[in-house]
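Posting for a labmate who doesn't have an account.
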Amino acid sequence: MNYWKSLWPSNPPTHVVGKEQIVILRERLLQTLFLSAFALSTLVYGFLLSIVLRNNSSGGIVFLTGIFIILLVLTLIRKLAYIPRAISFIAILFVIGTISMLQFGNSGSGFLLLITFVTVTIILLGPLAGFGSTILSILTAILIPYGIENSQFILSPDVLNPNTGLGWARSGSIFVLAVGIISISISIIIMGLQRSLQQSFDLSKDLQEQRGSLSKAVQDNTINL
């Protein structure tokens, strides 16, 4: 198979071919999320980098570049094991959500990303991991605002400056990202489940037809005897 075609979600890698449908479905979803996130990061990387450079933030440059490189590698090297890739994507969501809350406080963007973090964890890794991510998100959502209110955390505009006119654009883009990830995840899961149910229905129908044909053949042979 052509390498670029192998990156398309509908072409699962060899290490998941033949496994349960839910495993293949989750891997396809993960690749879809990586492709979407990488495409978005490619579009906004230069814009965000220019803001970071204006703020003279070396930490922001390292962070943005690191996230971009991680997304690039994990998107292009699909043959890597599923669990490390899934955990990496989930970790990126959590880190960005936490930094958003540390940077801008109770602005809503961090909460949206934490909700997305929990949702994607449940879908990609299952209910047990989802429960752990829920506890982690709740603790994060409580401790960070508490720390800000008590001056334990110092807000520092490393990536974006909330005092500029870019505040609305920042909140809007993060909101679109969160809603997009949730919508894509749920849509793919539903479509996959519907496909699985249809396949099960078709298999059951074929088995019933074969059983009917076998019964008829047995009756014909009995009559002939």
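Reply:
Got it, the structure tokens are right above this. Residues 3-224 form one domain.
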